[in-house]
Design a protein that fits this description.
Layout lengths: L7 E5 L3 H13 L3 E6 L2 H11 L3 E5 L7 H11 L4 E5 L3 H13 L3 E4 L5 H20 L3 H13 L34 E6 L3 H11 L7 E6 L6 H11 L3 E4 L5 E2 L3 E4 L5 E8 L2 E7 L11 H11 L4 E5 L8 H9 L3 E5 L8 H8 L5 E3 L1 H12 L3
Parallel strand pairs: 1-2, 1-3, 3-4, 4-5, 6-7, 6-13, 7-10, 8-10, 13-14, 14-15
Antiparallel strand pairs: 9-12, 11-12
Helix pairs in contact: 1-5, 2-3, 3-4, 7-8, 7-12, 9-10, 10-11
Length: about 375
């Protein structure tokens, strides 16, 4: 997409009504809808014909569904794709499969009074479509390939005024028993985040005995499935947070959609969280800042904060709080971030101790907790 130009979009949905509503919202938001598709096959053809900057892709469509169309597009003409998914368990599963195939992110389709709810969500939809359109899908493919094969990219630890330490790399993690007692890490991410959060958790060894809190900007109805996927793909016991939930070493909580997750108490290596529906922070709920700031206030043992890909500035205040409390902070680098908004804002605080490509984020976390 040329700098300063309006994004060009293909809208794919089997519902004529939804195609019209989505197209109208995008056009009103300054996005040029160059084609509409009734199914995945037409979406693939529209991408070939119009070379858009972004595709909004329905999940369930006849002839070819959204995951098949995403796979075809990413194989033949890589294009940033935003999945539009209804709130059902089946659609949630397929949506995560589409992310694995290369879709950048997803947006929950409205239910009930569709036109009224879509109108309420129109600013969010325009923002995320604009953000996804700016993603370079070729770079994203390179990152995915590097993630599978292993990366040789060095980590930059000069972004902030953190303590002197060895640079994290792809070297094997420290041996069992070489970590500090009772470490906690808070991970925050947004656009492009689900697959990279999955990678970070899968790279963390159980012998580090971490307490892990994850805040991924994700609507209700999807965070439970997200937690199940992370639980299956990591050594940690991962579950969706509930009000009053407690975790100790080797366990992780995923912030529930539409609820802030606060750290409410900490004692003898176990922490408790509370869920609230207080007003959105940074226009989002759950907010990374809420979890990081309450963790910094409450946790007395070693603490680290990690900001991964995402749009906006959520997490910047949380990084400041963790840094002020003596914790260690890491941000994903620009080259491997689908959207560099959140990491960039965190780095700009001057409170980030290390900037790492996604392959090295887990190593950076582990380095912060190594016994020296």
């Amino acid at each position: 997409m040329a700098v300063g130009s309006s994004p060009r979009a293909v809208v794919a949905d089997d519902s004529h009504f939804m195609r019209s509503v989505i197209s109208d919202i995008l056009e009103q938001g300054g996005i040029d809808v160059v084609s509409m598709a009734r199914n995945g096959r037409e979406a693939v053809e529209a991408v070939e014909a119009t070379d858009p900057d972004v595709v909004t892709m329905d999940v369930e469509m006849p002839e070819m569904n959204g995951i098949e169309a995403t796979d075809r597009i990413m194989s033949t003409r890589p294009t940033p794709i935003l999945m539009l998914s209804a709130h059902t368990d089946e659609n949630a599963d397929v949506t995560f499969q589409a992310l694995e195939k290369g879709a950048v992110d997803f947006f929950r389709k409205p239910g009930g009074e569709v036109s009224m709810e879509m109108s309420r969500l129109q600013d969010q939809l325009v923002d995320i479509v604009t953000s996804v359109a700016a993603v370079d899908p070729t770079d994203s493919s390179d990152v995915a390939s590097a993630r599978t094969a292993g990366s040789d990219v060095a980590t930059d630890v000069d972004a902030g005024a953190g303590p002197d330490r060895d640079e994290p790399s792809d070297a094997e993690p420290a041996a069992a028993g070489a970590y500090v007692d009772n470490p906690t890490v808070v991970v925050g991410s947004s656009t492009g985040g689900p697959t990279v959060v999955e990678q970070v958790l899968s790279d963390l060894p159980l012998d580090a005995d971490l307490r892990v809190l994850v805040v991924q900007h994700m609507p209700s109805g999807f965070t439970g499935r997200f937690a199940e996927r992370l639980d299956a793909r990591s050594e940690y016991d991962v579950r969706e947070a509930s009000d009053g939930a407690k975790i100790g070493g080797g366990e992780a909580l995923i912030a529930a959609g539409d609820y802030h997750m606060e750290v409410t108490s900490y004692r003898r290596g176990r922490l408790r969280v509370g869920l609230t529906q207080d007003p959105p922070v940074n226009n989002v709920r759950p907010a990374v800042d809420v979890t990081m700031e309450t963790a910094a206030e409450t946790i007395t043992d070693p603490l680290a904060g990690v900001i991964l890909t995402g749009m906006g500035e959520d997490g910047a205040a949380g990084v400041r709080a963790i840094h002020a409390a003596g914790g260690y902070t890491v941000a994903q680098d620009e080259a491997t971030s689908a959207v560099f908004g959140m990491p960039k804002r965190a780095i700009e605080t001057g409170c980030v101790d290390g900037v790492a490509p996604i392959n090295d984020v887990a190593a950076a976390i582990l380095d912060a907790f190594e016994v020296t």
